[in-house]
Design brief:
Number of helices: 9
CATH class of the largest domain: Alpha Beta
Largest sheet: 10 strands, mixed
Distance between the termini: 65 Å
Order of helices and strands: HEEEHEHEEEHEHEHEEHEHH
Structural class: alpha/beta
Number of strands: 12
CATH architecture of the largest domain: 3-Layer(aba) Sandwich
CATH superfamily of the largest domain: Periplasmic binding protein-like II
Radius of gyration: 25 Å
CATH topology of the largest domain: D-Maltodextrin-Binding Protein, domain 2
Number of domains: 2
Length: 301
């Protein structure tokens, strides 16, 4: 009896050892270890990464993607990450054609691509982005109704004095049609109306748009909130008396916002999965807010 009991106990202990040593095989699994003091510590799952990642698309999302890339590469010198812009349309087209690993977009893929291009695309919503109307600092108008905004961008109103401002010509700064920010603004701020021709940018670059508005008297355009924080060379305009802030977006008061998407062609694996996991991790959560983006978990729709 004693011998049988000893054998059973030995088998049970071996099973417990194997169970305790088992870990997941995913690229972002964390591991636990015991330090010299006997305390248990958990190592970051975002260490010892290697491989290469290429992405392009949304210029509104580029600063966040670049921040994540820079942070990961600091601890992972064998990891190569290239982040380019070019507009949501480019990002979606390139991921559909498998010419990049990640396609960044301010809009859902079905808003830009034909049905035959959607096959295999996987959507990863990483955050929320608000879009604000911005003007040159010499413009005295601080609030516009939706009707006034539509009238300005469709070319019906051509002088700021018509909406309570100074006697000054309005200069529209247009984004290219590949821009996801333009798609969001057209749908949610302009009610689907087409913009009149103004000072057209040749590529979707939020930094260039900001500079153009800042340097052009009477200019008006629109920017993602990730590009407006702390800027004094442009002014934000309220919409129907509501300030473009994330608190107002979360509460449903400010309507011009969208999810920021990172699309993969098929399920993410390897370095790409690790990158997307990092964006969704608690380690990176504060950077999303600090960079001027919104917390997707706070949205009700």
């Amino acid at each position: 009896m004693k011998k049988a009991f000893a054998i059973i106990t030995s088998i049970a202990l071996m099973g417990a050892m194997f169970t305790g040593c088992s870990t997941g095989t995913g690229s972002s699994s964390s591991t636990a270890s015991t330090d010299s003091t006997g305390s248990t510590t958990t190592s970051s799952p975002f260490k010892n990464l290697s491989g290469s990642i290429t992405m392009d698309g949304s210029s509104a999302l580029q600063p966040l993607a670049q921040a994540a890339a820079d942070s990961l590469k600091t601890d992972n010198p064998d990891l190569s990450i290239t982040v380019n812009a070019g507009g949501s349309g480019k990002g979606l087209t390139d991921i559909a054609n498998k010419s990049v690993d990640i396609g960044n977009s301010d809009v859902f893929a079905e808003d830009k691509l034909t049905a035959d291009k959607l096959t295999g695309l996987v959507d990863h919503k990483v955050c929320v982005i608000g879009v604000a109307t911005v003007v040159n600092p010499d413009v005295t108008v601080t609030n516009l109704t939706k009707d006034q905004l539509v009238s300005i961008f469709t070319g019906k109103v051509k002088n700021w004095k018509e909406v309570g401002g100074n006697d000054q010509a309005i200069v529209l700064v247009n984004r290219p049609t590949t821009s996801g920010t333009r798609s969001l603004f057209k749908k949610l701020a302009l009610g689907g109306k087409d913009e009149a021709t103004g000072t057209a940018l040749q590529q979707d670059d939020s930094g260039i748009l900001e500079q153009t508005v800042a340097q052009t008297k009477g200019a008006i355009g629109y920017l993602a909130l990730s590009y407006t924080g702390g800027k004094t060379d442009i002014k934000l305009v309220n919409l129907d008396g509501v300030e473009p802030t994330y608190d107002n977006i979360y509460s449903g008061k400010y309507p011009v916002w969208g999810y920021e998407h990172m699309y993969t062609n098929g399920e993410a694996t390897g370095a790409v999965k690790s990158f997307l996991d990092y964006l969704a991790s608690s380690e990176f959560a504060s950077t999303i807010i600090d960079k001027g983006y919104g917390d997707a978990s706070k949205m009700k729709s």
